[in-house]
Amino acid sequence: MNGKEVLLTPEGLKKLEGELEILKTVKRREVAQRIKEALEFGDISENSEYDDAKNEQAFIEGRIITLEKMLRNAKIIEHDENEQDDGVVTIGKTVLLRDLETSEEFEYRIVGSAEADPSQARISNESPVGKAIMGKSVGDVIQVEVLDGVLEYEILKVSR
């Protein structure tokens, strides 16, 4: 079964592997124990504890399958620490942007979609802003189409 390539930073790989390990060991055991306890109550036809535990079990098993597939298709994006930084935006780099309308500055780490977490300033290379800045350099002005129109950003800094 061929899947879509999943781009990951080394940290993202460790995080997914850690989540998978916890799901396979701790969480599987916990939910199995909950199911066992719910079955001890007898009639499962109206047992919400049993239903909740079975639903959680299905979620855990689904997430395990998803993570295993992602890890199978993972391509690790690593940067050679000795390599001269060329200032070009690529996955794994941190980018400082300035909104040309408000002068507000934003710093984002560019990651693959599996690692994206906007609340942690980690945006996907597939997001609108990520797509617009990939391959660009310091001083470039980029335009990002959004529902309300077009946002313009200047790239102020690119770092590892």
What are the key terms here?
160 residues; 5-stranded mixed beta sheet; alpha/beta; Chitinase A, domain 3; two-stranded parallel sheet; 24% strand; Helix Hairpins
Sequence stretches where pLDDT stays below 50 over 5 or more residues: none
> Count of helical segments?
3
User: Could you spell the SSE succession in H and E letters?
Assistant: EHHEEEEHEE
**Main beta sheet strand tally, sense and closure:** 5 strands, mixed
3D architecture notes:
By secondary structure, the protein is α/β, with parallel strands linked by helices. The protein folds into 2 domains: 6-76, Orthogonal Bundle (Helix Hairpins), CATH 1.10.287.180; 94-159, Roll (Chitinase A, domain 3), CATH 3.10.50.30. The chain is built from 3 helices and 7 strands, in the order βααββββαββ. It has helices at 10-40, 48-72, 128-133; strands at 6-8, 74-76, 94-99, 105-111, 122-124, 141-146, 149-159. A 5-stranded mixed β-sheet has the order 5-4-3-7-6. The radius of gyration is 22 Å and the shape is elongated.
